[in-house]
């Protein structure tokens, strides 16, 4: 006898919501069903109970089609026999909930959903790491201003920058950084050489796609610049440091929150060449080319749900070609700047493991974009200079800057 098929559809649906097993029993009062519900669950608006419940066909509850005749008073007398208020009921059929195959399928579906959610978090982590590496790039004007008229042997400088923008995938970010350095100037017949040390700290907060997080980087650097008497210059800088990232995300499908943090060492190098061509009435144009290479090491870390993340190392190679068009005035200069940039490599691969599942996320950051803005360099006192630049990007697909402001000050002595 299939007791479930004898039940009205509404009763069957109600019991299915709460039972872990349904046992069919027979006794003097006919055929009945014993349901094992979850605690404190309402079968429907007609009955509620805390433990076992015994249902028999009847008319006392016509809407449900079953009558609750007893709850929580069973005596197990062995061999599938129950005693209820003196009545003996013998098990004739048991309907178990999900089968082992169904349970395994449900577990696989849950693991797959977890893996998909973790993959989204990892993709965002890849973007943030790449972003932190890129904003560490800077040309000589952003870093130290215009040094052509500097005649002192030594100098210290400090600059701060900030801005906001968007990353591919719908994430917004806000960034803030500070960089400082010390250098010495060595005069030559054909120009001067400036060599020094620098330190950079940068921080970014980001949100979007159900995720929030922050990242920061700290870099130590060495740099050298040659400024020729005929208007040309060469600038080189190498920075090495560590980047870290924390991210928390809530998945729309699983409604679970995932978090993780990771750190990686990185190398950033840049070589820049430019030539200032003097025009009439103090105007000038300064073509520039720059090549920037960075390398981020890989890292292995674990998400809050136990997923193992193996992030591989990645490389970036950004080329820049542009110009400054400006005018020299009594105590400084102001200029317009415009450059075309291209990311030639920009790839990262990350492997993920969650229980028995494995996945791979590959990110491609190759892109072409423009950067343009305005800037100035002004001598506030003998051997002291204030410099600033305001820029933004256009045509970028992977990482765009709505605005970035750079403000610095140099003391020479």
From TrEMBL:
Q: Which PROSITE patterns match?
A: AUTOTRANSPORTER (PS51208)
SMART domains hit by this protein: Autotransporter (SM00869)
The Autotransporter domain is annotated at: 149-413
Q: Name one GO cellular component term.
A: outer membrane
Which Pfam families has this protein been placed in? Autotransporter
Q: Which PANTHER family match?
A: AUTOTRANSPORTER, C-TERMINAL REGION OF AIDA-LIKE PROTEIN
Q: What is the protein's name according to its record?
A: Autotransporter outer membrane beta-barrel domain-containing protein
Organism of origin is Anaerovibrio slackiae
